[in-house]
């Protein structure tokens, strides 16, 4: 028996040594992490969803990137707009996918907003809606608070249905636009704008902070180390930026101070890593809503908790993707607007499939993990896909 055990251990040691040296397996050249594409050996049920079960309204798209920091006197160049032919292709995809409407959040202000509304809603009525943005470049005006409130009213007359607040407010905007002290999200100069939005029925789509990992060191413990390595400017760790806790505190101050204004916290309220935190805000602020854009990678890792969250807050969650159309072949870590991206959302919402890709990108953009679906019932699907968006935006029933 002893000799047999010794022979087994000796053989095991030899096998391990062989594996380390490569003598017992075909030699493979060294590869980088970017080249690593493991294929799952799990055998799981596979129910692709090519088309949303019910008509859907995507409240988080970027078909136009307009201004915000551009001064009114800096010329009248049009914003960056998706080309007409590509827009027509997107409209065709929308028909195939059962997407009723896309809301373009970044529509700018002033002449940029007018251009955005005409290029989207004007050319494709019913398919596209447009939001305006605060004119941060004008913040040094003596009468800025009232001027900005009046500009929101003008935007409403021009066709804007809501207001998009980028993370520019809180992380980048400074007293001298790009220099000086950071301007707080709850700066009282914006109070007339928030109030006017509420009176006009224009919801605020607000992006505050970013994933938790972006506020921690980019080291071996950071779950989004690879993503931050590709985009080092996405890191907000360090003394140059407020903490995420502080940014969300400022945002919540605004929501609490303006109970008659609807606020939609983009990216699941910007804290899908802790749904109990988001639940607390929804319980505390009746005027607060959330949307799902670019957060399947977080929600799908906790499908049971996410399913319970959707059941409890089914009337407060809006469907969004953060869709960005790009020239063919171009790659990005963002949500590339193409059918496969939307279909990943549909599969997540409508099936209980396990361990599937949350993005059609070759390398998962946020982290090397997969997700599981939450299989929502029809009554919740209808609300998340479109019903909640209709009520928040004041849209008529289809």
Strand composition percent? 5-15%
User: What's the CATH topology name?
Assistant: TIM Barrel
* Radius of gyration over C-alpha positions, nearest whole angstrom: 24 Å
Taking the sheet with the most strands, its summary is: 5 strands, parallel
Query: How far apart are the first and last residues' alpha carbons, in Å?
Result: 79 Å
Across the major sheet, the strand order is 6-7-8-9-10
For the structure shown, list the relevant keywords.
5-stranded parallel β-sheet, 3-stranded parallel β-sheet, globular, disordered N terminus, TIM Barrel, 38% helix, alpha/beta, 398 residues
Summed up:
The protein has 398 residues and is α/β, with parallel strands linked by helices.
How would you explain this protein's 3D organization?
With 398 residues, the protein is α/β, with parallel strands linked by helices. 38% of the residues lie in helices and 10% in strands. The chain has one domain (51-393): Metal-dependent hydrolases (TIM Barrel, Alpha-Beta Barrel), CATH 3.20.20. The chain has 14 helices and twelve strands. The strands form four sheets. A five-stranded parallel beta sheet has the order 6-7-8-9-10. A three-stranded parallel beta sheet has the order 1-4-5. A two-stranded antiparallel ribbon has the order 2-3.
């Amino acid at each position: 028996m002893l000799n047999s055990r010794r022979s087994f251990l000796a053989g095991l040691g030899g096998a391990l040594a062989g594996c380390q040296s490569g003598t017992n397996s075909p030699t493979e050249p060294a590869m980088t992490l970017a080249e690593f594409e493991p294929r799952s050996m799990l055998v799981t049920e596979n129910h692709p969803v090519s088309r949303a079960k019910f008509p859907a309204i995507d409240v988080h798209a970027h078909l136009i990137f307009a201004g915000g920091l551009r001064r009114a006197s800096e010329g009248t160049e049009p914003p960056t707009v998706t080309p007409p032919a590509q827009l027509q292709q997107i409209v065709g995809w929308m028909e195939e996918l059962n997407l009723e409407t896309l809301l373009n959040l970044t529509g700018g202000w002033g002449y940029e907003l007018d251009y955005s509304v005409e290029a989207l809603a004007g050319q494709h009525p019913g398919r596209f809606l447009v939001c305006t943005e605060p004119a941060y470049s004008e913040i040094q005006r003596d009468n800025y608070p009232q001027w900005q409130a009046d500009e929101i009213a003008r935007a409403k007359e021009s066709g804007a249905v809501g207001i998009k607040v980028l993370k520019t407010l809180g992380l980048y905007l400074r007293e001298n636009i790009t220099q000086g002290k950071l301007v707080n999200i709850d700066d009282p100069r914006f109070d007339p704008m928030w109030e006017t939005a509420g009176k006009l029925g224009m919801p605020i789509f607000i992006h505050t902070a970013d994933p938790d990992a972006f506020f921690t060191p980019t080291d071996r413990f950071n779950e989004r180390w690879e993503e931050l390595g590709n985009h080092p400017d996405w890191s907000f760790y360090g003394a140059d930026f407020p903490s995420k806790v502080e940014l969300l505190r400022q945002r919540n101050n605004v929501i609490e101070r303006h109970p008659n204004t609807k606020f939609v916290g983009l990216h699941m309220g910007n804290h899908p890593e802790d749904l109990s935190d988001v639940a607390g805000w929804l319980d505390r602020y009746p005027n607060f809503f959330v949307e799902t854009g670019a957060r399947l990678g977080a929600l799908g890792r906790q499908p049971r908790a996410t399913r319970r969250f959707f059941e409890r807050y089914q009337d407060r969650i809006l469907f969004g993707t953060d869709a960005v159309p790009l020239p063919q072949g171009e790659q990005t870590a963002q949500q590339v607007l193409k059918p496969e991206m939307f279909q990943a959302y549909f599969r997540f919402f409508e099936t209980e499939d396990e361990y599937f890709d949350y993005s059609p990108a070759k390398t998962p953009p946020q982290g090397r993990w997969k997700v599981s679906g939450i299989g929502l019932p029809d009554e919740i699907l209808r609300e998340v896909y479109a019903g909640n968006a209709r009520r928040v935006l004041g849209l008529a029933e289809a």
